C-alpha cells in the first residue's frame, strides 16, 4: 500500500510518502528541490552513477515512521545537499528546511 500525506515542518507543508512492502516500509518526505528518505536510499549511487542529475537528498537509518524520519539525524547526504549546508547529523526537519 502507498500512502501520501502532508507533513508540516515549521510553517511549510511537504509531501510524505509511505510504501508498505513485505518486511519493510519505505519512507520519504520531499520538497520541490530535494528529499530525505529512510535507509533504503543509496546515497553512493546518487553521488557516483547519477551525479549528473544533481540530486539533493539525505538518508536516515533505523526509522519506521514519517515522524521518526523528521526527528532522526541524517546518516549520509548527497554532494548536492552538502552545497546547501546539509550535513550528516542534522535532523531530517533541519535538512528539509534547507531544501526550500
Description:
This protein has one domain: Hypothetical protein YunC (Hypothetical protein Ta1206 fold), CATH 3.30.1980.10. 32% of the residues are buried. The longest helix is centred in the C-terminal third of the chain and has 7 residues, at 92-98. Helix 1 (43-48) links the parallel strand 4 (34-37) and strand 5. The protein is an alpha+beta fold. It is 23% helix and 35% strand. It is built from 4 helices and 6 strands; from the N terminus they run ββββαβαβαα. The protein has a 6-stranded mixed beta sheet. It has helices at residues 43-48, 66-71, 79-82, 92-98, and strands at residues 2-9, 12-21, 24-30, 34-37, 56-59, 76-77. This is DUF1805 domain-containing protein. InterPro entries: DUF1805, YunC_sf. It comes from Paenibacillus rhizophilus.
Short description:
23% of the residues lie in helices and 35% in strands.
Number of strands: 6
Q: Tell me the name of the CATH homologous superfamily.
A: Hypothetical protein YunC
Count of helix runs: 4
Strand line-up of the largest beta sheet? 1-2-3-4-5-6
Tell me the span between the first and last alpha carbons.
28 Å
Work out the oligomeric state of the chains in this entry: single chain
Second CATH tier, the architecture = 2-Layer Sandwich
Report the uncertain regions: none
The overall pLDDT average reads 97
Rg of Cα set? 12 Å
Structural class: alpha+beta
Tell me, what's the shape?
globular
Q: Portion of residues in helices?
A: 10-25%
Integer count of domains = 1
| CATH class assignment | Alpha Beta
Taken as a percent bin, the fraction of beta residues is 35-45%
Which H/E pattern describes the elements?
EEEEHEHEHH
Instruction: Say what the CATH topology is.
Output: Hypothetical protein Ta1206 fold
Question: Biggest β-sheet: count, sense, barrel?
Answer: 6 strands, mixed
Protein name: DUF1805 domain-containing protein
Amino acid at each position: 500500500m502507498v500512502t501520501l500525506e502532508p507533513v508540516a515542518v515549521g510553517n511549510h507543508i511537504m509531501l510524505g510518502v509511505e510504501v508498505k512492502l513485505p518486511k519493510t516500509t519505505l519512507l520519504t518526505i520531499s520538497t520541490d528541490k530535494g528529499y530525505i528518505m529512510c535507509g533504503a536510499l543509496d546515497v553512493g549511487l546518487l553521488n557516483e552513477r547519477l551525479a549528473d542529475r544533481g540530486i539533493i537528498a539525505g538518508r536516515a537509518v533505523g526509522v519506521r515512521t514519517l515522524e521518526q524520519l523528521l526527528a532522526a539525524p541524517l546518516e549520509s547526504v548527497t554532494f548536492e545537499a552538502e552545497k546547501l549546508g546539509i550535513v550528516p547529523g542534522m535532523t531530517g526537519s533541519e535538512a528539509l528546511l534547507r531544501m526550500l
